[in-house]
Design brief:
The chain is built from three helices and seven strands, in the order βααββββββα. By secondary structure, it is α+β, with helices and mostly antiparallel strands. It has one domain: Thiol Ester Dehydrase, Chain A (Roll). It has a five-stranded antiparallel sheet with strand order 1-4-5-6-3, with helices on one face. A two-stranded antiparallel sheet has the order 2-7. It is elongated.
Length: 147
């Protein structure tokens, strides 16, 4: 997964989050049910956003909400109950939307189990209007000049 050309000059920001699937996350065969991977992405995304002080509460306080408008998931190898995983979250686009790539690895062997991507769009909280460019606060939090 490569960075968007428009963001090519910016450093790629990556955060790794460790998760251990709980018993309630698995099906009768002990395999993590596919829908729970989206919860793992949410945990990783929250840690990622918090890493530059623009988590969901800060987003809302700045006057914006950032709903997910697209999500993709590719399951490569199953994850089982109690198997520690590492979710590596990487920012790949931010000028017009917030696009994150994820790779999930088995923590002990390093085997990649899953690839995913989410896209969020800034929406003005007060008016519910979608923004066609990311607001200046995102650039400020990332330590980058606005376009």
């Amino acid at each position: 997964m490569t960075a968007n050309k428009a963001n090519a000059g910016a450093p790629r920001r990556t955060v790794t989050t460790e998760i251990t699937p709980a018993f309630c996350d698995v099906d009768p065969m002990g395999v993590v049910w596919h829908g729970n991977y989206f919860r793992y992405l949410e945990v990783a995304r929250t840690a990622f956003l918090d890493s530059f002080d623009y988590g969901y509460i800060k987003m809302e306080e700045s006057g914006y909400v950032w709903p997910i408008v697209e999500a993709r998931m590719k399951y490569i190898v199953p994850v089982f109950f109690g198997q520690r995983i590492r979710v590596v979250t990487t920012l790949v686009e931010y000028e017009n939307r917030l696009r994150l790539d994820y790779e999930i690895f088995e923590a002990v062997s390093g085997t990649r189990t899953t690839k995913a991507q989410t896209t969020q769009i800034a929406v003005r909280k007060a008016t519910r209007e979608m923004c066609f460019a990311s607001p200046a606060i995102l650039f400020e939090k990332l330590g980058l000049p606005p376009p």
